[in-house]
Amino acid sequence: MISSRDRVFLFLLVLATFALFAQAARHTPAYTSMEKKIAILEAGPQNASQTVNLTQDELNAFLNEGGVQLPNGVSNVKFDLRPAVVHATSEVNFDQLSEGHGGGGNPIFSALFSGTHDVEAEAQASGTNGEGTITIQSVKLDGVQVPKSALEYLIQHYVKPKYPQAGMTSTFELPAKIDTAVVQQGQVELVQKK
Questions:
Q1: CB atoms < 10 A from the CB of 179, how many?
Q2: What is the DSSP annotation of 96-154?
Q3: Of 57, 60, 129, 141, which sits most exposed with the smallest number of CB within 10 A?
Q4: What is the tens place of the pLDDT at every residue in 69-87?
Q5: Is the pLDDT of residue 102 over 70?
Q6: How many domains are contained in the chain?
Q7: CATH number at residue 123
Q8: What percent of the chain has pLDDT over 90?
């Protein structure tokens, strides 16, 4: 016969086992793979260079499972990677996104960029000599193409307050000694150099 003490111990053991399984199940395999690849990138190349390929599934999992703190008001981010092109979709609550810095002076654009909308963007993206470049090609709001003047307003009043260096074309230093970044079908190839 099992004593009360043994039952309690057995119960705690079963509870701990379930807790471990629940902890492991919080993230998808793609998220876990992305975490491992980030650790490899942070450690840097062991030889003269190393190549790490990040898949769009890994990027999407990492973004949507808490690996990155998304701006308040941005959710359901999904990347679709094509040669030299990043296609992204997300849900954006412009009221939350603009909290703390207002919406700007144009009443037409302020009305357009309020509430929650499905946003779709396409950009050319590349990285060479340790420098990344992203050039926005198009943006759609609820499936409707955003005119260039409205897009410039969007960047000026919703993006630049949080990311002052951002624009229609943004250039930035690649992190972690990454020398090149090549967007390919379904993945981005990162090459680090010592």
A1: 17
A2: HHTTTT---S-HHHHHHT-SEEEEEEEEEEEEETTEEEEEEEEEEETTEEPPHHHHHHH
A3: 129
A4: 998 899 999 999 999 999 9
A5: no
A6: 1
A7: 3.15.10
A8: 64
> Can you say how many angstroms the Cα of residue 30 is from the centroid of all Cα atoms in its chain?
14
Query: Which backbone phi and psi does 171 adopt, to 5 degrees?
Result: -120, 140
Residue-range definition of the domain harbouring residue 18:
4-193
Q: Are strands 178-184 and 169-173 parallel, antiparallel or unpaired?
A: unpaired
Tokens linked to 1: 């016969």
pLDDT in tens, 113-142: 889 999 999 999 999 999 999 999 999 999
Sequence-distant (≥ 6) Cβ neighbours of residue 115 within 8 angstroms: 93, 94, 95
Dmax over CA atoms of the chain, in Å, equals 79
Average pLDDT over residues 136-153: 92
In a 3-state reduction of DSSP, which class is residue 56?
helix
